[in-house]
Amino acid sequence: MSRTVELILGLIGSIVGLVAGFWIVGYGNDLTDYIQTFTYLSGTFGDKVATLGWVTVIASALALFASLLIKKSPRGWGVLLVLIGILMFFVVGQIWIVSGILLILAGLMGIFRVPSPKY
């Protein structure tokens, strides 16, 4: 069964996450008040905006890796995509909406999509 939809959704979600992460790292000091509004961990990561950006970049890179390998083992990499998508909502907050939704959809499709029978 072709897993092209999961691959494309995962790639788009992880690339958008990488762009958002580098955006946070690059403009961190200028965006401190903006980021504080959107993160749920204002005491832990929220005070260090650059750290928040690097966490986003690392999670997005891991999601990119999982997206590229989702055709090999859809259930295993799908679980990882769902976990990254949900976890980053709590770490980064609302700046992760687009990436998180796409990664969660790709992961759930990888986990629950039943292969078509071969005749």
From TrEMBL:
InterPro entries: DUF4064 (IPR025273). Residues 2-90 form the DUF4064 domain. The chain crosses the membrane at residues 7-29, 49-70, 79-112. Coiled coil: none annotated. Keywords: Membrane, Transmembrane, Transmembrane helix. The keyword Transmembrane applies. This is DUF4064 domain-containing protein. It comes from Listeria grandensis FSL F6-0971.
